[in-house]
Amino acid sequence: MTKMPNNFLWGGALAAHQFEGGWNQAGKGPSVVDVMTAGANGVPREITETVEPDKFHPNHKAIDFYHHYKDDIAMFAEMGLKCLRTSIAWSRIFPTGVEEEPNEAGLQFYDNVFDELLKHGIQPVITLSHFEMPLHLAREYGGFRNRKVIDFFVKFAEVCFNRYKDKVNYWLTFNEINNKMDVYNPIFLWTNSGVVVHEGENPREVMFQAGHHELVASALAVAKGKAINADFQIGAMVSHVPIYPYSSNPEDVMFAEAEMRERYFFPDVHVRGYYPNYVLKEFEREGYHIVFEDGDKEILRNGKVDYLGFSYYMSTTVKSDAQEKNDGTVVNGGMAKSVENPYIQSTDWGWAIDPTGLRYTLNRLYDRYQIPLFIVENGFGAIDTVEADGSINDNHRIEYLEAHMQAVKKAVNYDGVDVIGYTLWGIIDIVSFTTGEMKKRYGMIYVDRDNKGNGTMKRSKKDSFFWYKNIIETNGKEL
Ligand code: BG6
């Protein structure tokens, strides 16, 4: 039976705002997520103007890793994780984003976390920006629609690179930078870029301008990082949802191909260092005025990423003549002309369960870019039940994960795709990003906390905990 390559990075993935808590501890400033309330499946999260004390902001406390990090990391170690992907909350380091000097207490917190991980032989894989822009930059500067925010981000990146250069080797610049191609759901532009679209504006034009600034910021950060430590591996991170044609009708096939550009635009620039023609043509056709400054082209060329990180949860299927749905309700990786795929089942939250889509994705991305790939998010969000004896039998999760990991193994061992590792999303239960719920659980470690924030925060091992431990121990031999 084959195994995964030696040094394959089996791990878990998290994002600061979804699990740390301690939202205003030790000098941390509010971030764009700290003003989001809890929603539910089909009920959008509200973005409040500022932190409103009478509203419930579930990320404030999250699962309080801030005070539990030693015990939580000990559990990750017991599972045998080789790496932990997490993020640095920007507003812990620069509370408003514009300070001259970083917040030492915030930096120290991550020193403590990284030291604890390394003590257990777990390598930190760090995202610089995972939906945690300081609120001040969003409200006062308009987020990344403002070019000045590039400098604030690059300064933050430089501080992190310098401080953690001996502790962190794998970095990612912006989490799921391409989420915001869905401009109809305000949550994406807000969390990605700190941007609110105003009346009369063309949201797609605004998105491209903010996106351009982020691509420049990412490229500048890559160049700075490499100058600080030439061994750093700095990657991009995109959400990848493959788009299938509904039928063999060439119209459907071409339509799906063109829709895939919504997924490819950002990684095309990150990896190749220049804008693809299909987007330049769109700017021309639509009359978008996207400001490129002198030198931007060179910056993009000099800041190409070393590897491509991506999340994979589901696929979607489009039909060229389907009725358009552009009302902000398409949140499950769908497109305006998505239709149901008769061959695919979905989770309780409507996310298509498609393990073959992961193998397909790995092949398409590798053929296109020919650089190492890192699956930095994949997982199964579901309701878990604690049995009377305290056990949590999450076979539904094991089934999902096993099928997806088998797909990765085929892509590596049969297709020859270069995959650095696999970090399972939400290794411990956390606050869901799109809904703000706790009951949409991904973890292998259960956390006693409910949608309203009640619970003891007690951690317990689910069945999948032991299953994953064995997969890691045997390096995927049993998959
Ligand atoms: C990705 C994000 O979009 O998917 C995570 O990078 C997020 O932050 C994950 O949590 C799963 O989404 P959700 O809404 O189920 O938490």
Automatic annotation (TrEMBL):
GO terms for molecular function: beta-glucosidase activity. It comes from Paraliobacillus ryukyuensis. The active site is at E377 (nucleophile). This is 6-phospho-beta-glucosidase. Belongs to the glycosyl hydrolase 1 family. Keywords: Glycosidase, Hydrolase. Pfam families: Glyco_hydro_1. The keyword Hydrolase applies. GO terms for biological process: carbohydrate catabolic process. The keyword Hydrolase applies. It comes from the Bacteria. GO terms for cellular component: cytosol. The lineage of its organism: Bacteria, Bacillati, Bacillota, Bacilli, Bacillales.
